Amino acid sequence: MSKEELEKREDEEVETNDDNQRRRRRRPIRRGQLKCPLCTAGIKEVSYKDIYQLKKYVTVKGKIIPTVKTGVCSRHQRQLTREIKRARQLALMPYVAKDI
Ligand SMILES: [Zn+2]
Q1: What is the pLDDT of residues 31-85, one digit of tens each?
Q2: CA of 3 to the centre of ligand 1 (A)
Q3: What is the distance in A from the centroid of ligand 1 to the CA of 81?
Q4: In the 3-class helix/strand/coil scheme, how is the chain assigned residue by residue?
Q5: Measured in angstroms, how far is the CA atom of residue 54 from the centroid of ligand 1?
Q6: Where are the domains of the chain?
Q7: What spacing in Å lies between the alpha carbon of 4 and ligand 1's midpoint?
Q8: Span 3-16, pLDDT tens digits
Q9: Residue 73 C-alpha to ligand 1 middle, in angstroms?
Q10: Phi, psi of 36 (to 5 degrees)
Q11: Which CATH number applies to 37-89: 4.10.640.10, 3.30.479.10, 3.40.50.300, 1.10.10.10?
């Protein structure tokens, strides 16, 4: 193994340690370990009619949760965004919800 490779490895280790310390409070699961829940469930198309499914991907206030937090793949995230916006227009879901 060359010196450069060794140095790279050391750098990576240091970085991951830093990341763990920084993320421990907010996000115990790292992004790389998350798998798209919709892909694993075998869902090909998300529908605006399936509110119970869509509700998992919005906050209490009705905002769409970003991929980083849910682990949804880009394809499904795009579908979700489209379908949530459709559901909002049809008044199936709220644009904004009041504080609890
Ligand atoms: Zn997916």
Answers
A1: 556 789 999 999 999 999 999 999 999 999 999 999 999 999 999 999 999 999 9
A2: 40
A3: 13
A4: CCHHHHHHHHHHHHHHHHHHHHHCCCCCCCHHHCCCHHHHCCCCCCCCCCHHHHHHHECCCCCECCHHHHCCCHHHHHHHHHHHHHHHHCCCCCCCCCCC
A5: 14
A6: 37-89
A7: 37
A8: 555 455 544 444 44
A9: 4
A10: -60, 115
A11: 4.10.640.10
What's the 2 CA to ligand 1 centre distance in angstroms?
39
